[in-house]
Amino acid sequence: MSPPAQIATAVRVADEASWGQLLRALAQTYDIWAPVAEKNRVILRCLSPDELDQVKLDAPPTLLPAKKVYRAPEETLLRFRKGEVEPLGNGQHPWALVGIHPCDLRAIQLLDRVYTGFFADERYSHRRQQNFLVVANCLQPFPHCFCTSFQSGPFARKEYDLAVTPLFGRHLVQAGSAAGEAFLRVLGLPETTGSELAELVAAQAQAEQAVTRKVNTDNLPRLLNMNVDHPVWDQIADRCLSCGACTAVCPTCYCFSVQDRLNLDLQSGERRMAWTSCLIMEFSRVALGHNPRHERVARVKQRLYHKFSYFNDQYGQFGCVGCGRCVDTCVAGIDPVEVLAQLRR
Description:
Elements: E1 11-14, H1 16-27, E2 31-38, E3 41-47, H2 67-70, E4 74-81, E5 84-87, E6 95-100, H3 102-115, H4 122-129, E7 131-136, E8 162-167, E9 170-175, H5 178-187, H6 194-210, H7 220-225, H8 231-239, H9 245-249, E10 256-262, E11 268-275, H10 296-315, H11 325-329, H12 336-343
Parallel strand pairs: 2-6, 6-7, 7-8
Antiparallel strand pairs: 1-9, 2-3, 4-5, 4-11, 8-9, 10-11
Helix pairs in contact: 8-10
């Protein structure tokens, strides 16, 4: 699947009324998925047309990332009965992801490398091709963000349809694809003035400077490969609970398992796909019960080496976008920024 062609477009201005009009226009063609506040947390869910005013553009990262829209935590692939197989299609209406952060956009681009590369996943590709991406640029970093280390934020760079920046009571909107530009042209939003454009440029510079948490990525894969036996790994393993929470909330983790579930009649059942985690002991268990990662320290290393070494070896890019979800979620307080810094001391 090829990404949408990038185009240079003018920045347009939407007031609150125009922004609402934009969302309603999107809802006529797409199901709207957006971050909303629920019970002291922010979640990404599909909204009904009368819930569009709940979209939060300045919200912290959603509890689960955008990957859940393309590959649900659990879904049925097919149903079977003796002598019959019924594959299940995608069965989904085109959707628009509205208000996702630039780091989540970057994560989707990394998942594209995995799911639409040499081994293409038809279900993912189909869903990816029929969506519309509206990215909300970040004006302030969140406590555990380190997105600038991987060029994934705080402002979107490419491969989006629309990018919106809420600034001084207005929404500055720019198209990043032909589809996005056509959409804005129909709405007839006015272009920004020179002063408004200067404010946007200044806001981007200030947002980048505000991200103080950093990962030094210089020769990072080599650093990891030279420190396989560093004491920090045992220290982390002693704290890690192997719960897999960090991989569940990670926007770029993509491991899954497939199981056939047989009904009590022993004649029918279904095949289901579900997220899984390299931190869980059963993940690496093979025939006759052998497990090459039986020790927790091996599983801890596998996760971080995959993000910062193996993924880079395979795709030429790091498998992390610096969203900070893993740090927010880890009850043991394990922070990749601190771990990687310890390897350089």
